[in-house]
Write a structure and sequence with these properties.
Layout lengths: L19 E7 L10 H17 L2 E8 L3 E8 L6 H18 L11 E5 L6 H13 L12 E2 L5 H9 L2
Antiparallel strand pairs: 1-3, 1-4, 2-3, 2-5
Helix pairs in contact: 1-2, 3-4
Length: about 160
């Protein structure tokens, strides 16, 4: 039986420009390989570099054991948040292979284009609270695998939590 490939939810053009997109990418078979200082230490520079290459900024990221949340924002009309996430998954997948990490990303990812009127803060709260909801820590700031690549993290979290 031929596998039916579900198209991405939006046209590629919807991910371009001055927008904010919340992405969630999962590891195949929910293998828990991401909650490691060595792995996250290698992947954070990759997510920053791919965002930079695509004219985007990483507002917040949270690496969970089997998935990652990334809140990307485009900085000008040439920004491409979708391409940034695709490049990150490709580069990090190659890194997994070269470094003996037995993991692969699931095909595709979940995303939500943040409407201007809803603001990014609610998504920031959701992302930051993920380790608490998963029962990994009691307080989100106790989780070691989160941050911001382009912003002062304290300012970003204060804006997300106190909005």
């Amino acid at each position: 039986m031929a596998r039916i490939r579900r198209p991405h939810r939006f046209e590629r053009s919807r991910y371009r420009g001055v927008i904010t997109v919340a992405f969630t990418a999962c590891i195949q078979n929910r293998r828990q390989v991401l909650a490691s200082h060595a792995v996250v230490g290698a992947l954070v520079p990759m997510v920053k570099e791919t965002a930079d290459q695509c004219g985007c900024q990483v507002m917040i990221y949270v690496f969970m054991p089997d998935h990652v949340h990334v809140l990307l924002t485009g900085i000008d009309e040439n920004s491409d948040c979708l391409l940034a996430m695709e490049k990150f998954k490709h580069r990090s997948g190659m890194w997994f292979k070269r470094n003996g990490v037995e993991a692969r990303w699931q095909e595709g990812f979940y995303d939500h284009i943040v409407r201007f009127d809803e603001g990014w803060q609610g998504h920031g709260q959701y992302i930051l609270a993920n380790p608490v909801r998963a029962g990994l820590v009691k307080d989100w700031w106790s989780w070691p695998f989160f941050g911001s690549c382009h912003f002062d993290f304290e300012t970003v979290t204060r804006a997300a939590i106190w909005s």
